[in-house]
């Protein structure tokens, strides 16, 4: 007896399968597809799936999925949808996928939530001077009770957002609930909830700058030596986007002066070499690329895929469909 449900397959690192798709989420997917909820592959030429490919209709991908080559697409002629349980699809999807009319969806919106949360937390702490004051307290081992510290606080703090991406827009939405003055730079944004400035003006007039632009040839070293020099004394630069947006050598030179500070969740290279001075500078706060989904946050992306799958099988338009023409300006 054959199932009338579409055949589906997980193509991602098996270690991530139970994190992305715990039982409750896996059961939702199994209700709508003919899939083994405990089986995931990292190689699309895996002989264990050869018999499945001619009937495969839905591929659920994630971190570790290899590129969907022409040979794979030829072997899966009925494939009609790729639902990605992570952010960018650039690493494993080629134009041939769209040329064949295959529908593509991504959980990038779900993955944007923890990045935005991390960023807003970093902005709030930076505005209070937490990182520098922690260093001072740890060094002096004392402080003056009831001392009013000048030049800290978030009331009216000027925050510049570079990039109205999914994450950038969420960060702006969060910040507008506070008493920040928020400005945006994004040459592609067609609308914005906050005033837009040219990049140079944004950098020169912001207390805190947060990067949310995609990594493209046009954005490589977007913050170069000349633009970093525009940051006001005491400014804090936050990068949760891509290390390539900043000229690392130029940033190090600025940081060495003590004139500005940085909160870096991403760097170039990544990870940093063990001898990098960024580990030792007191005005740098480094984290190991953790702003995106971690731990129990992975199941949010799995749930987003389950939501999209239910839309797909019921003929409802996908909420997070990715179009090929969007890739040039997307993360």
From TrEMBL:
Source organism superkingdom: Bacteria
Sequence ranges assigned to domain D-isomer specific 2-hydroxyacid dehydrogenase catalytic in this UniProt record: 43-322
All residue ranges annotated as the D-isomer specific 2-hydroxyacid dehydrogenase NAD-binding domain in the record: 128-291
Family matches, as PROSITE patterns: D_2_HYDROXYACID_DH_2
The entry's keywords: NAD, Oxidoreductase
One of the Pfam families matching this protein, by short name: 2-Hacid_dh_C
Family of this protein: Belongs to the D-isomer specific 2-hydroxyacid dehydrogenase family.
Name assigned to this protein: Hydroxyacid dehydrogenase
Organism in which the protein naturally occurs: Nonomuraea insulae
């Amino acid at each position: 007896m054959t199932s009338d449900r579409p055949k589906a397959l997980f193509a991602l690192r098996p270690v991530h399968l139970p994190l992305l798709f715990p039982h409750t989420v896996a059961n939702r997917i199994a209700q709508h597809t003919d899939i083994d909820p405990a089986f995931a592959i990292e190689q699309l030429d895996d002989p264990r799936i050869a018999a499945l490919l001619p009937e495969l209709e839905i591929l659920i991908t994630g971190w570790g999925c290899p590129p969907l080559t022409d040979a794979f697409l030829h072997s899966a002629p009925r494939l009609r949808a790729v639902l990605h349980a992570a952010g960018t699809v650039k690493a494993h999807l080629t134009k041939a996928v769209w040329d064949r009319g295959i529908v593509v969806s991504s959980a990038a919106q779900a993955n944007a939530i923890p990045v935005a949360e991390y960023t807003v937390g970093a902005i709030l702490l930076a505005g209070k001077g937490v990182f520098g004051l922690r260093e001072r307290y740890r060094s002096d081992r004392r402080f003056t009770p009831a001392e009013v510290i000048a030049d800290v606080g978030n009331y009216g703090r000027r925050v510049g957002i570079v990039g109205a991406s999914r994450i950038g827009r969420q960060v702006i939405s969060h910040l507008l609930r506070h008493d920040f003055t928020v400005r945006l730079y994004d040459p592609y944004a067609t609308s914005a909830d906050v005033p837009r400035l040219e990049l140079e003006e944004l950098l020169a007039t912001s207390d805190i700058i947060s990067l949310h632009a995609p990594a493209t040839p046009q954005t490589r070293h977007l913050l170069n030596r000349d633009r970093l020099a525009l940051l006001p004394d005491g400014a804090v630069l936050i990068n949760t986007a891509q290390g390539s947006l900043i000229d690392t050598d130029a940033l190090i030179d600025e940081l060495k002066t003590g004139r500005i500070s940085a909160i870096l969740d991403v760097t170039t290279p990544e990870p940093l070499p063990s001898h990098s001075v960024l580990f030792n500078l007191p005005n740098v706060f480094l984290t190991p690329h953790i702003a995106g989904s971690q731990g129990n946050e992975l199941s949010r992306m799995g749930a987003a895929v389950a939501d999209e799958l239910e839309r797909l099988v019921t003929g409802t338009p996908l909420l997070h469909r990715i179009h090929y023409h969007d890739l040039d300006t997307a993360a």
